[in-house]
Design a protein that fits this description.
Two copies of one chain form a homodimer. Chain A is an alpha+beta fold. The first copy, chain A, has helices at residues 10-19, 51-57, 70-77, 86-92, 95-104, 118-128, 155-162, 218-234, 269-272, 277-285, 311-315, 345-356, and strands at residues 2-6, 25-30, 41-44, 60-63, 112-115, 132-136, 146-149, 167-171, 175-185, 191-193, 197-202, 205-211, 239-248, 253-259, 299-305, 320-324, 334-341. Chain A has three domains: 2-82, Rossmann fold (3-Layer(aba) Sandwich); 111-171, ATP-grasp fold, A domain (Dna Ligase, domain 1), CATH 3.30.1490.20; 175-356, D-amino Acid Aminotransferase, Chain A, domain 1 (2-Layer Sandwich), CATH 3.30.470.20. Chains A, B: This is N5-carboxyaminoimidazole ribonucleotide synthase.
Amino acid sequence: MNIGVLGAGQLGRMLALAGYPLANRFTFLDTTGHPSAGIGDVMIDTDRKHLDSFLEQVDLVTYEFEHLPVSLVQAIEEVKPVYPSSEAIRVCQNRAEEKALFDRLGIPTPAYRLVEHADELETAARELGCPVVAKSVTEGYDGKGQAVLRDPAEAHDAWRAIGHPRLIVEAFVDFVREVSIIAVRGRDGEVVFYPMAENQHEDGILRYSIAPMPDLDDAVQQTADGYIRALLDELDYVGVLTLELFQTRDGGLLANEMAPRVHNSGHWSMDGAVTSQFENHLRAIQGLPLGDTAARLPTCMVNVIGREGDPAEILAIPDAHLHRYDKAERAGRKLAHVNLVAPTHAELLAKVRACAALLPDAPAPRFSFE
Amino acid sequence: MNIGVLGAGQLGRMLALAGYPLANRFTFLDTTGHPSAGIGDVMIDTDRKHLDSFLEQVDLVTYEFEHLPVSLVQAIEEVKPVYPSSEAIRVCQNRAEEKALFDRLGIPTPAYRLVEHADELETAARELGCPVVAKSVTEGYDGKGQAVLRDPAEAHDAWRAIGHPRLIVEAFVDFVREVSIIAVRGRDGEVVFYPMAENQHEDGILRYSIAPMPDLDDAVQQTADGYIRALLDELDYVGVLTLELFQTRDGGLLANEMAPRVHNSGHWSMDGAVTSQFENHLRAIQGLPLGDTAARLPTCMVNVIGREGDPAEILAIPDAHLHRYDKAERAGRKLAHVNLVAPTHAELLAKVRACAALLPDAPAPRFSFE
């Protein structure tokens, strides 16, 4: 089975590393001119001239990046199976569509408004009550195209700074923590759920994910399972889907956004779960039985951003699993992650602090249950 | 770090899969004309014309196959670091040298004789007491170049069948089980030991390895650790070394043979240990800290030989981890292995039986502790 992957970054790289043991081969289609997968066959196609030969080589197509032209993915679907489908991409790459889907399925979200003018942004900020977050409805990725308004008077500046014709404005949520749920749906409709992770972002970039959470009520996990199952079934989805949520003081969940792919907040599963999110995505899209998603032990994923630190020092931490992406250092760039595993959450937190101290640009880890 | 690997089979493939997360790149030198690694850069060099360009590409050299000309490895050592060294290859590819080393280090072995003529073989068979095993001193691999003599009168036929000028003749050992110990020595001399595995061979090919063993006395593990540490230190060895042994009725250990490389009886570590033998080999040869060798849970490696069965059925077994080598089916060929993991040995044995039933050519699993 030769699997075609749209995008050729670290997610594709890790998909391939999970897929070789299933006897999969990988062909990546990179449209950026800067592939970093470093594995498999990488076709650079900045002018859409190589799509046909890419499609000739592959048996089915998946993607590691959802900000692709929907028309491109629809065209591919005419020729080869694509999982997840173009419909998932269409919804996920547009925050207005995404919120409408959440609303339709009864998945609660922070209060929001759609605006198409700076004046409307100001009105929305006033109605929702500042601070608010304004985001372009499209092309959002890792905190880009966003602005926080502390006062409705900042609306015109924010509008210009974001520079998009349509924004979604969201009320700030007084959340206890950011969490995510990752689930996998097979071609036959079977769904499995990973234990939820608690995520710490810094400047819009994920820094730490810890799973399972020591203090998570089973009922909250079941609520999240219900939300993501509704999304999976509604979209007739095949593969890994990620839903990021806020958990509020009363334990409730509010959906933030979703990603139709393997996700940074699921990297802990590579060393902490029976089956990694990457293997389960590949199992799903090939129609193979899904693997057990249970966590083996408490695990924390630490992102390595900007600068790498000394791999030897990281590897000296017991039960530390380093996953480097073989990319050049650059401020804000995801270069690697470390999965730390420990028998208890207390021991895990000590390891996380030890690891963070070895990474030049790591913020202090802070978890809600400390 | 670009790592050069002599040999391009499944062991090299799995080394590469473990090394990409360390940001290693791999160049394989295949001298057989039939590489199967399917990953990294593979240079086919059946006429020794590409060695220089191979060496230009790599920072250090290791190997997945020890039956290489010692002179070749010595020549490579003049240019690039080679781990383990040519001395390890020289000793391991010659059973007479190997036994002499065991003797020198006080590592017990089955009684043996070296013979250079059919008449000497007959005498040895008489003195040791049949049955005996006769093996060519060189090029032994997976049971090839061996014969069992049930009677000294079979000596001339066996001599001709093996067709080598120098044989080692070994007394049959009334063993309870075959076991192996795998250890890793770093560049700084640090040594770590994996839990011993119990191995089941069939027609000279490994079929099952289970680790840890539920009934292994700590003292036996320590004895094995001591034997392999003596070998590692004596050879100033860097990397993974495997020592196969027989365990006798009184619990004692007799060394059978060693392999200067990652080993089939250590594949369980990919899913059953904190750090796999492949990652630890790469850590060792790069001078990185060695990883924890502890087993997470009872694990059994099931070799898939000759025919693959249905991957979907295998993956439906809970906590089954399939590792396919992407090779064509052929009688006696190692095509894949399955690592089965379970909370208890009783549950593990049930999974092993379920898995064996799915493999067309699998013999019945039999473990000494059942």
